[in-house]
Write a structure and sequence with these properties.
The protein contains 6 helices and no strands. The protein is mainly α. The termini are far apart.
Length: 199
């Protein structure tokens, strides 16, 4: 049996159960993870993306985007933990605003790359991804709806985990059957009977 797949199924099912039982906790986890991602994204923008093109407008837009990303990311991690539950909803809207502004700056910076040899497609997709996350957060903002969405995600995780476990058990049984069918049973060689000598 592939233990890795079995443990993955069990872990997924347990995670789904926890999401169903504690949906508010996972709402907070999403905010913190987005905050950490914003910090990493800001550092990446300042260190790598900003240096792609030697253009003052491009560099300025990416510098603003990077600094804002880091500030918002630190705020998303520290602010709600320091103040309490009321800050989570406020932080969601701050993240939404940041994502929209960041995407606008990103599209502007990508437009400045038009005359360069840099492939702009990934930057457009990156900024579309930021807008998609903003829309997702807007959908999550009402707490009641967020709980429903997280519980649906939890149910999907439990079902997926159960399916993985079932597939592993069934495939393991088939493997045992195949191995038993491959065993060949050989008859013992018959003993030669000596015929009496008439002479």
């Amino acid at each position: 049996m592939k233990n890795w797949n079995l443990f993955t199924g069990i872990g997924l099912a347990v995670l789904g159960l926890l999401v169903i039982i504690f949906p508010t906790f996972w709402f907070k986890v999403v905010v913190i993870l987005l905050g950490l991602a914003s910090i990493a994204y800001g550092i990446y923008s300042l260190k790598f993306t900003r240096t792609i093109l030697e253009n003052s407008s491009y560099e300025l837009s990416l510098m603003i985007k990077g600094i804002v990303s880091i500030v918002v990311g630190v705020s998303a991690v520290a602010f709600p933990l320091a103040i309490g539950n009321a800050a989570w909803t406020v932080m969601i809207w701050i993240l939404v605003g940041y994502l929209i502004v960041s995407a606008i700056l990103g599209f502007y910076a990508a437009a400045l790359l038009k005359d360069s040899k840099v492939n702009r497609k990934k930057y457009f997709l990156e900024n579309l991804g930021l807008l998609a996350i903003a829309v997702f957060l807007i959908i999550l903002t009402p707490n009641a709806l967020a709980k429903v969405i997280f519980r649906i995600v939890g149910i999907v995780a439990i079902v997926a985990g159960a399916v993985i476990i079932l597939i592993e058990i069934v495939s393991n049984k088939k493997a045992i059957v195949v191995k038993s069918d491959d065993v060949e049973v050989k008859d013992a060689p018959a003993e030669e009977t000596e015929t009496p000598d008439n002479n």
